[in-house]
Amino acid sequence: MHSSVHKLPIGVLGASGYAGRELCSLIAAHPRLELAFATANAQAGKSIHVPFAGDVRFIESEQAPLGDAALVFSALPHGASKIWVERAAAAGAKVVDLSNDLRIGSDGGGIPYGLTELRRDQVRTARIVANPGCYPTTTMLGLLPLLEQGLVRGGATIAVNAASGVTGAGLTPRVDLLFGEVTENFRAYGVGNTHRHLNEMRALCAELGSDVDLLFTPHLLPVARGILATMTVPLAEPLADAMAPWRRRYGGERFVELSAGPPELRDVVRRNVIRIYATMAAHVRAPTLLVFAATDNLVKGAAGQALQNANLMLGLDEALGLPC
Amino acid sequence: MHSSVHKLPIGVLGASGYAGRELCSLIAAHPRLELAFATANAQAGKSIHVPFAGDVRFIESEQAPLGDAALVFSALPHGASKIWVERAAAAGAKVVDLSNDLRIGSDGGGIPYGLTELRRDQVRTARIVANPGCYPTTTMLGLLPLLEQGLVRGGATIAVNAASGVTGAGLTPRVDLLFGEVTENFRAYGVGNTHRHLNEMRALCAELGSDVDLLFTPHLLPVARGILATMTVPLAEPLADAMAPWRRRYGGERFVELSAGPPELRDVVRRNVIRIYATMAAHVRAPTLLVFAATDNLVKGAAGQALQNANLMLGLDEALGLPC
Amino acid sequence: MHSSVHKLPIGVLGASGYAGRELCSLIAAHPRLELAFATANAQAGKSIHVPFAGDVRFIESEQAPLGDAALVFSALPHGASKIWVERAAAAGAKVVDLSNDLRIGSDGGGIPYGLTELRRDQVRTARIVANPGCYPTTTMLGLLPLLEQGLVRGGATIAVNAASGVTGAGLTPRVDLLFGEVTENFRAYGVGNTHRHLNEMRALCAELGSDVDLLFTPHLLPVARGILATMTVPLAEPLADAMAPWRRRYGGERFVELSAGPPELRDVVRRNVIRIYATMAAHVRAPTLLVFAATDNLVKGAAGQALQNANLMLGLDEALGLPC
Amino acid sequence: MHSSVHKLPIGVLGASGYAGRELCSLIAAHPRLELAFATANAQAGKSIHVPFAGDVRFIESEQAPLGDAALVFSALPHGASKIWVERAAAAGAKVVDLSNDLRIGSDGGGIPYGLTELRRDQVRTARIVANPGCYPTTTMLGLLPLLEQGLVRGGATIAVNAASGVTGAGLTPRVDLLFGEVTENFRAYGVGNTHRHLNEMRALCAELGSDVDLLFTPHLLPVARGILATMTVPLAEPLADAMAPWRRRYGGERFVELSAGPPELRDVVRRNVIRIYATMAAHVRAPTLLVFAATDNLVKGAAGQALQNANLMLGLDEALGLPC
Fold first, then answer.
1. Chains touching chain D at 3 or more Cβ pairs under 8 angstroms?
2. SS3 content of chain D, % helix, strand, coil (to 5)
């Protein structure tokens, strides 16, 4: 369909998981990129049907021609990714790393953090980008205008209640992720403010110069995809126009949608967007803002944002090939 | 199976909805009660198969022999219930009203509020009881020990994020409750602290002498049954033993379970229990407690608690016939 | 993204239902089409967010500038569509009618039946096309090679057991389609070979010169989208290569996929394809073939096939803008 | 609640899986039985909350005091069960084996097959009973009246299309049973008439003297519990009263329900019943009956029927403690 245009060869490391497959699908639909290789050690040698990407043949990471790729996405597991990011970079490829190995708050050593709407300029010139986690993307893009504009009450605790679909936990055979255990169920996990994504969010708050405390409580939803964050934010002063901070901050952004009411998962799934809504709380004495933010954890929260960053790194239109 | 025992005749007004059917099922399994009549004006004359209750034949409310019943449950819609509660009481029946017509915060005129674990003594001698809503049951039983023991920071805002299954919205043909609109979706509603259940919860806080503000945000889950409330509570001082307030308060309670970790919906569905867990939040400067409470909105949050109250009003063991 | 190309104006009548919204989304993603108007009488004057199509503003059908459109899709209800198809055609637009008003087996009067893979040549030159139903598309494309190649045992009964997601029943507020009634449930409906789609399938069998009897039993699945048909076919003789009839028939087809095992709904949802698998039954004396066919009822079973037909009618590449 | 009655001690081997947990719940609710021990080697030493059974403490099978139990249920995996059945029997306990190790069609050596409604008299006096599989229970109880009454066309093939919830596959961490893989999906498996349950059904047909061929195709439903079998039965002659064979056969049966229309999963889940409906097919020349049968795979299809058999073996009322 896009036959005659020259396409850039792209590699995907760790392509058999949910984020990896999503990357393969996005690359297949992209007018300027094509899949050069896809690795998955446990499934090396097999072809697997990936909707929208056709039959994808997996090879071992060791066999991957890293140097042939203009850009490599690493969707390898946390801990296993860093070494491959370095190998791909050494072979001359640009790299977007979807693991948390190199994100802020880790010892990533100054690798640009690919929260695109915040760090677009750094991403554009980077050779390696650390792609944010799904919860941090949703939470921090949701709170960014308040933090940057100094609207949160000093030293306050922001309660972030987030709920995610099961693909956020990856394609691993865990008993507690079986259909029979998740359907008609709902539960919190990582309670007590101990989730591993917290580090990344706290580090970003610090970089932004904010002294807020985040209290983050994730929940597991009986859905495949999507994250909704419901955030309770103590304000320094009431806001007459609750949505004004987001309109000011995200005016020209193509992947940020301000909605007229609370966003729903179905408005964002399979799309590279975050939808945000905010409203003042009635019947409480302390001025308090409720902020709602929704994303697809596999798209804007992972593969989509990774491709958004890749587009910038490759000098392409940031929105090219991204579903929205 | 319980053949030779004398059974008390029980009426159900508004029996064709979710709570009404649940009442019919519970009555059918109860060793000392039997269904005398079930009304449903729109379905009058029809028999409908209700699992665990067999084929239930509905009559019109106007045809119901109110005076023949030892006790009548009203599961009629809000607004339509009050007049029937009065008629059943005038006919000599005891009444448990599941609507919000007579609850605290309404102009119910001093009708006992059937949050059983709080008002057991009043319920025992009452001729009419106003059965609490599903969200207030879950929230207020969850917070009760903190409020009674004065552990919340003075004037603080407690953020209550609750998520409920769709049966909470009743058996009404609304487009936004269709399977195709709810599956793989999740959304907040009644946002901005405006939900109609708030009144009931605020009135109860006031009766308990607490000056806290509740900030209540409900969400719609893609499940049939169950409510999970995740509550962020600013404390006056840190708690060394986060579960101690609940152990103290609910020691002998048969329908309150303290769990070793965050409760899940599947632990409570179809059971007349509330499961509660609490833990201090790490990494925040202000001492903050996270409280999780789960119920089945149709059982402990409606029909089960109604039967618990009815057992007391009829001089029976409070737990008789209740699944747990 | 496809900015400079001239785009053809397309109208959608009855755009607020599931098929209508899917049409809006497909048109928005199409490189050569653009939405000229979308009608929905009950929602006229409102804008509704349709994922991938943005905010769609609905007008009344009476206000629709039918003559400005190169082609009009009618997704109006059965019975209400025919008159609008005629008005749009009279105004000079080509029309694809998604209702069953004009399909074979009705008194449509020779309107080409848009089962594209069977009637491509008629569609290409038609001014009006009757788009097949979702069940007939899945069933008949699945059986076509067997019928055309005379492989079914003469006079035999083919048992077609099909299961569909709830969007097949449309966006109508029926109690039996509520989430609480469909989740964790499964049931047959239209039993006894009485489903209204049967007429369409029987008429097509007759046109193909086949004397088979179809015994069609639909079921309602707790999923939003997708149809799986499991078909038991008595054969004249055993087939040594069970997939050969499909390979022969569908060699060059871009929207027919032959799979290596039984197709799953998730392989076809949101894609304009049918996936087919066939295998001989072991342990039975009469030679019997099992045929499995899966589609997305809203795409290949409705809006996608409608667009496939529209592409042909407009002289475009049949596959243009179709997700696969 | 049932305090003063003497209760019989019951053991459960392999208690941590779905059927094992269901057994623990049923025993806890039973007025004359109590749990003596529950084994689960991988979880030995742990207590797990089982709804309706409370906290169940697991021990190793080797530690189980088999001889102290009046009856032992084995819910051990196929292949691993037989040796423990023999050990429990040797220790003096009666045994109901839920595995397929000893069922007809295996080399079980004449152990009574506990399809209760067919083999009640043998079960009553048995010391060991082989409990039927979930699919065979649903299929064979559904077809029994037709087979016994000689109504099926001689030598015909009965097409059995069955769909089951995921708990039928047990509590094993398989990737294809993850929530993310099953939600919004539907697929056939074991296609080509090769499912391992077929053997059991064919053996039973042979014992009944029937010469029919069964063509069995199972499907995986996105629900936790329940089986629906849709069966296409060629008849020797048309039936004027399609339900008559079932009324004749199952007149006094307490766990067989004949429904007025196609049975739904929600009518049978958590209940020890099979619901059956039959109707003649219109528009086909060969007289053909459609038979629909639904059960809960964990109750009537496993733990419930096992308890029904145990009641008989222990000289209790067959229905005691069984939800219906």
1. A, B, C
2. 30, 25, 45
